[in-house]
Structures are given as structure tokens and as C-alpha cells.
Design goal:
Layout: H1 8-33, H2 44-98, H3 105-128, E1 130-131, E2 134-135, E3 146-149, E4 157-160, H4 163-179, H5 187-244, H6 248-274, H7 276-283
Length: about 280
């Protein structure tokens, strides 16, 4: 029907052009930002899922930093215990040598002097080894229960306790380093004291090994935790990307298609507007 008041073809063309312009704008926005979802209206459910996945990956990234920092802290303590072991072994060698009758009084006094110096350094290492300004060994972090946050959720924690072993070690070090340091000048007493110290030092070395072994096992566990977190984080990030990221091939094709439809719609709108002139031709 020819009508001056209503041009159905023009209205249809206008509606098609508006829809095409909206689709073209969406494609251009996605291509310019790199994201398929730029507002909640683009994909409300997808945005909710992606947001939850992003929060999880962010938390896991921080948990990975936690495991790395914890590993560094425990490695610092383990390195200190390696030095403690080296000093104890040397002290045991000195005690063993001094316990032999072939060593003269002067020899024993020289050995005792070195023994005393090592005992002081043991105290220094045990009391002054720190990580981030916090004491680690005697009376420090290792002397209390340690809780590590190893995941993004509240329940993902790991508790390690070497407090009892640390208490036994501290006591053993005190006993081992005091026995052979008393001010004695009699060769026979020096020999007896040195002999008594041998077993005390052996016990102290064993107790250092117990604590250091526990730290080593914890370091290995943290390393596995870090590797697993990395695996989970990578795959979770991939899942989030599949939801959020723009498929450039698909959106480029969609943009080209919408551009062509927009040109065609504009041309058809021009043609539909010319139909009104047919009405006037009937009146001539």
C-alpha cells in the first residue's frame, strides 16, 4: 500500500540499521578492549563466573608468594643450623683430642680456648639469626608453632611445629658447651671434662639434625605446594580468559559483516524514502 503517512519499508530499514549499529558498536568495543565482556549486560552469568575465577587466581598468586617467602625463611634457619652442626663437629673433635693423654696441658688449654670461642659463636648464631628482622632460632619463630597460608581460601593452611625439638636442642647446646669451658688448670680434670663432653656434643649434633631434617621436609613440601599452585593458577587463568577475552577472528568477521549490513541498510533506507514520490506521481 502506498501511503504518505506510513512508510513501512523505511521503518523496517531504520530498525535494521539501529540493530546493526548496536552490533557494530559491540564488536568494535570488544576489539578495542580485548575483552568479550565489558559490562554485566554483555554476559551477566559469565561475568560472575569470571570474577570469581579472577579472585581465586589473585589469591593463589599471593599464596605462591607466601610459600616462596616461607621457603626463604626456612632456608635461612636451615643454613644457620648447618653452621651450628659444623661448629659442634669441630667442638667434638677438640673434646676427643683433649680427652687423650698424649695432649699436654698447654695443648688442652689451647683446645679449650678454641672450644670456648666456638661456644660463644653457637650462642650468637642461635640467638641472633633473623629473617626480616624477626629472630628465628632460640626464642624465635621456630620455637613456636608456625602456620603457613598456602592457598586462596581460609582453610588452606599448613601448620608446622618444631618447638619441642628446638627446646631440646637449646638445652643440649647449653649442656654441651658448658661442660668443657669451666676454668680448670689441672690436666687430669681437663681430660675428664673433655671425655664427658664428647657424648654431650654427639647428642647436640643429633638434635640439630632432627630440627634441620624437619625444616628440610617442610621446605620440600612448600616447593610442591608452590608447583601445584602454579598449575592451578595457570589453568584457572585460562578458564577465565575463555570467558572474558575477545576472540579476535570471530569479532573481526562480525565487525566486517555489520559494516556491510550498515551500508546496505543505509542504501535501502534511501530507496524506501524515494517511494513516497510515487504517491505524488499518481496525483499528476
Amino acid at each position: 500500500m502506498l501511503s504518505l503517512h506510513t512508510n513501512n519499508a523505511a521503518l523496517s530499514a531504520q530498525n535494521a540499521i539501529a540493530k546493526t549499529q548496536s552490533n557494530l558498536s559491540t564488536s568494535m568495543t570488544r576489539l578495542s578492549t580485548g575483552y568479550r565482556i565489558n559490562t554485566a549486560s554483555d554476559d551477566a552469568a559469565g561475568l560472575q563466573i569470571a570474577t570469581r575465577l579472577k579472585a581465586q587466581t589473585s589469591g593463589m598468586a599471593m599464596a605462591m608468594k607466601n610459600t616462596q617467602n616461607a621457603t626463604s625463611m626456612l632456608q635461612t634457619a636451615s643454613g644457620a643450623f648447618n653452621q651450628v652442626t659444623n661448629m659442634l663437629v669441630r667442638m667434638k673433635d677438640l673434646a676427643t683430642q683433649a680427652a687423650d693423654v698424649s695432649s699436654s696441658t698447654k695443648d688442652k688449654e689451647a683446645m679449650q680456648s678454641e672450644f670456648d670461642a666456638l661456644g660463644k659463636e653457637l650462642s650468637n648464631v642461635m640467638n641472633n639469626t633473623t629473617f626480616g628482622g624477626t629472630t628465628l632460632l632460640a626464642g624465635g619463630t621456630l620455637s613456636n608453632s608456625m602456620t603457613f597460608q598456602i592457598g586462596a581460601s581460609q582453610s588452606e593452611t599448613m601448620t608446622v611445629t618444631v618447638a619441642s625439638a628446638m627446646s631440646s636442642l637449646t638445652s643440649a647446646l647449653g649442656s654441651a658447651s658448658s661442660n668443657y669451658t669451666s676454668a680448670i688448670t689441672n690436666a687430669a680434670e681437663l681430660t675428664a671434662n673433655a671425655n664427658a663432653t664428647i657424648q654431650l656434643l654427639a647428642d647436640a649434633i643429633d638434635k640439630v639434625g632432627v630440627v634441620n631434617s624437619a625444616l628440610g621436609a617442610t621446605i620440600n613440601r612448600l616447593d610442591h605446594i608452590n608447583s601445584n599452585l602454579s598449575n592451578i593458577s595457570t589453568n584457572t587463568e585460562s578458564a577465565s580468559g575463555r570467558i572474558m577475552d575477545t576472540d579476535f577472528a570471530t569479532e573481526s568477521a562480525s565487525m566486517t559483516s555489520n559494516q556491510m549490513l550498515l551500508q546496505a541498510g543505509t542504501a535501502m533506507l534511501k530507496q524506501s524514502n524515494s517511494m513516497s514520490s510515487l504517491v505524488m506521481s499518481l496525483l499528476q
